[in-house]
């Protein structure tokens, strides 16, 4: 059986098991690849109802790095991941969870499109993302409150060593960033940890119909979500302003460090975030901006190590080696 047929059959079995009803009709079942994932493989599964309407769900197959870094062999880790995803769906902060299994999950299909990198700097969109992030950070989630960043950072470093990556350029940055993480004053919140344009959906039909931006924009993809440092989430997002993943040619991204948000753009974003939480003050704005400058450096090394691992284990077509180099050059 070909890989395509094997995948289609597996997808049908999963949809039939978790969704039942129309999803048990093999003749009307279709599956197609959804481009854009850098960690996991995404597919849209669809079927036709008796009335001729099309139903869709997203099938997410975890990449190897997720299975290793999140220890998906551990039943407790799988349960926690599923509970978190389900809570976010119930609060309409993410897609609904339809089914969880050892290699991935079935999710609600949300109509809309991913943002483009250049849209991140549009004031209305930027402040809406900040508002969404503010709500996200105030979530109470039934999982360990201990920050996982340092543990993940060390885990990526060790994994790179095991995979034979030349670690010479990482030794000093790793020590520097590890110390920074240990000494940070940034508060611990429930972080998304991967807020880039590809993980933000906007429903243009809703906007055209008169809905507000906050009603039409959603964060998605919560694989890296965990309790962690507020500044890391902010810095990650601001670093993503410099990365455009729409490039159809190798290495499948563009990097422009000069696109990092200006002080005014940072202040606008941070002010919207704090206002949503009822904590707006000049001191709070300055504090978060200081956190951003610290964790922007950490983020470059963190995602460079991640990319080195992906280059060794992933079969997704992306310039992971080039990406690792660009992130380390940005650190310097």
TrEMBL record:
Pathway noted in the entry: Phospholipid metabolism; phosphatidylethanolamine biosynthesis; phosphatidylethanolamine from ethanolamine: step 1/3
Molecular function terms from GO: choline kinase activity; ethanolamine kinase activity
EC number: 2.7.1.82
Swiss-Prot/TrEMBL keywords: Lipid biosynthesis, Lipid metabolism, Phospholipid biosynthesis, Phospholipid metabolism
Top-level enzyme category: transferase
InterPro entries in alphabetical order: Kinase-like_dom_sf
PANTHER family xrefs: CHOLINE/ETHANOALAMINE KINASE, RE24176P
Protein name per UniProt: ethanolamine kinase
Lineage of the organism: Eukaryota, Metazoa, Chordata, Tunicata, Appendicularia
